[in-house]
Amino acid sequence: MATEPSTDWKTIPHTHPKAVVIEQKPVARVDVVHLTDASIRSSTVSGVFLVDGSPEIIMWRGRPRIRVQCLWFGRKPRTTWMHIACGTHPRFERNFSGNIVWNIGLPRSR
To answer: What is the pTM of this model?
Structure first.
């Protein structure tokens, strides 16, 4: 059984301009959105994101966004999943199977 991601944001940055996709996870037959140059918490990311709820663009704080299930530095937001700014030409896809963006953060140093 998978454990629920932590919602404790005390030790992580709330924004970071250099955050990137650091983890993906496989899914099967889910609704996703393909995003290019989307923005979240001062970072710009691209990839396939799992849609949370209805696959639609919503207005959130005056900007078009999509609610997606994705972690930020390994943490889940406390109240709802992320509202990611759409970027250029979001494309919705139903019944997607493959890898989705699962975690945005900083790459581990080598």
So the answer is: 0.91
